[in-house]
Amino acid sequence: MTATYTAPPGPRGGRGTANAADYALDPLGFLTRAVREFGDVVSLTPSNVLLAHPDDIGRVLVDRGENVVKISDGTRRGPTGFPLAMMNSEGADWERKRARLRPAFRSERLAHLEEAAREGVARTVGSWAEGQTIDVHHEMSRLAMLVGATHIAGREPGEHGEALARAVAAIMRLTSSPRLPAWLPTRVNRDLRRSLRTLDDTLATLVREHGEDGTGTALGALLADGPPFEEVRDELATLLMSGYETTADALTWLLHLLGRNPQAGARMGEEGFAPAAAKEAIRLYPPAWVMSRETVRPFEVGGHTLPPGTVLGLSQWVTHRDERWFPQAGEFRPERWLAGGPAHRYAYFPFGAGPRGCVGASMALREVQVIAAELYARVRLEPVEPEAVRPRPALALQPLGVRAVVRTVSPS
Question: How deeply is 319 buried, as exposed, middle or buried, from its count of CB atoms within 10 A (0-12, 13-18, 19+)?
Fold first, then answer.
């Protein structure tokens, strides 16, 4: 029997290219307005549907490929894609790559991560002066690169750190803008390709110089079974970009929110408060602000049957700010996590969920809270023009304009 497919409601009936243009110009605002006006299942284009209810988000994320997949063979390679990495793989290939990396993110590695984080904070704060105005995102990027490379590759990035940071920053900046097709020789596309080449060259040097570290690093695990260099490069690129950039973004947002809420900042030394503050900052400003899956079979949702090949969008930005799951959703309230967090399991999914949830999720959250707590034990960061701060939705949700004056904390 042939399925009858029906389209959910959406802006302009979900049929106009104007929706794609509106999304490109203001994706956060467009997605928020779409759900507010049309509900939890919204047609954005004939082949793109946004799902906002935690029930549906859970169904999609826990699916093991029977009904949805992360990618399809026809959509695997993009202008910033790393097709051989675990996150861009499916089936047995994905299982093999995830099993290879899993030991590098086990709980016993937390002590190594925390040590690297504390040493990195001490070095960073030591480079600041009382009363100095700093670019918080720049400083957190340097710190996250130091900690991330030490943890992932078993060594400080040294001179390679600046090259990596510049390449990633360029990729984030360029992917935040509406672009013409990648094959067109536009300035943005040329700059993007140049940044990707820099990233490739720097990663190749890191791999070439890597020695036996004996500490169970992710890079050591990648090299253990002698895969092709292209596979190691793609995996290392996604690990560094997802780990380093998202950590820097989450830290910057957290410090911005703590600076605007000094009473919360004063509690960072209390038992359990730093983890709650980190979760709350990531709720309000999730580094991964949208994700997608693709249907491989007819998919029923909200009274509609969607055809195979439909891209299902899930937006952390939208669902994390839904008043149904988070009262006073626009406010920074770490206390909500001390009381247990949202009642619905899938109202909060900053690292995804289900079998394809981020393999390093617990470590990423731990790194953010340890660094923030260590910073607040040494300094306070007074915001400079906090009203000018805004999010830039690139591959990660970047904070723009976060500046602060350093104030040293007197020893008690």
Answer: buried
Q: Kindly write down the DSSP assignment for every residue of 41-105, as one continuous string.
A: EEEEETTEEEE-SHHHHHHHHH--SSSEES--GGG---TT--TTSGGG--HHHHHHHHHHHGGGG
Structure-token pair, residue 166: 């510049």
pLDDT confidence bin for 332, thresholds 50/70/90: very high
Kindly provide the residue ranges of all beta strands, DSSP E only, lying in 223-375, ordered along the sequence.
Answer: 291-295, 299-301, 304-306, 311-314
Token readout for 99 is 């099993």
Q: 258 with 268: CB under 8 angstroms?
A: yes
Instruction: Please tell me the chain's helix, strand, coil percentages from 3-state DSSP, rounded to the nearest 5.
Output: 55, 10, 35
User: Which segments within 111-184 are labelled E, that is strand?
Assistant: 133-135
How many Å separate Cα 15 from the centre of its chain? 30
Element at 111 (helix H, strand E): helix 110-126
Instruction: Judge whether residue 183 has pLDDT over 60.
Output: no
Concatenate the DSSP letters of all residues of 1-37 into one string. Answer: -PPPP-PPP-GGGG--HHHHHHHHH-HHHHHHHHHHH
d(CA 159, CA 144): 15
Q: Are 397 and 289 in contact (CB under 8 A)?
A: yes
Give the other-Cβ count within 10 Å of 71's Cβ. Answer: 18
Which pLDDT score is estimated for 375?
Answer: 96
Under the banding of pLDDT at 50, 70 and 90, the label for residue 75 is very low
And the tokens for 264? 């919360």
Q: What is the pLDDT of residues 366-377, one digit of tens each?
A: 999 999 999 999
pLDDT of 256: 98
30-33 LR contacts (CB < 8 Å, sep 24+)? 31/290, 31/313, 31/315, 31/317, 31/318, 32/317, 32/318, 32/321
The residue among 265 and 202 whose pLDDT is bigger is: 265
What is the rounded average pLDDT for all residues in the chain? 86
Give pLDDT, residue 73: 41
Stated pTM of the model: 0.88
Residue type, 236: L
Provide the token pair at 32: 């928020």
Distance between CA atoms of 55 and 58, rounded to whole angstroms? 5
